Sequence to fold (229 residues):
Amino acid sequence: GQQLNQSPQSMFIQEGEDVSMNCTSSSIFNTWLWYKQEPGEGPVLLIALYKAGELTSNGRLTAQFGITRKDSFLNISASIPSDVGIYFCAGQRNTGTASKLTFGTGTRLQVTL
Amino acid sequence: NAGVTQTPKFQVLKTGQSMTLQCAQDMNHEYMSWYRQDPGMGLRLIHYSVGAGITDQGEVPNGYNVSRSTTEDFPLRLLSAAPSQTSVYFCASLASTDRAVSGELFFGEGSRLTVL
Fold:
């Protein structure tokens, strides 16, 4: 099955720094989503994007749906220790078909004081 | 509000043993699914269900069975466990299968399975 290419695989940053991660695919998606997984927990939805070029914010998080529909970006501003976790992108090719969700391999974020 | 509840949280099996991972949701969601998470592989869909009595295969269904007799429950069965099935398993659900935003899954806390 197809996997999304997510980078970087891991990041070690200091508290207060900004973070950028991205997700690319060889195929077009109609929806992009970003999930966060904290240690010992299941992933939780952060941001959903439904339109090419769309830029959406959720607090210190900003995500963009790439204009080509083959990529998406997530930025975290002024990182804090509770940002630690694994961030997954997910793309959905056909709306209304949850079974067609494809997940990226994840970006592991560590924040040091 | 319990959301999606998975049991057990941890399990160790010997090769060839069978077991069932339980998943229950109290949100009256139509769609339920099982994923496995392996290092460097992200989340891969095993089986899913769009409603009671309806199930279908995902990306990696071999070695797993599911059933959906009620809206609330969606158990995952391993008939003869193999070391390759060592993984963390997540159950996920969402409200409606025909929503345009149907990527918005609610995940359980996961079940960590080790097969020796």
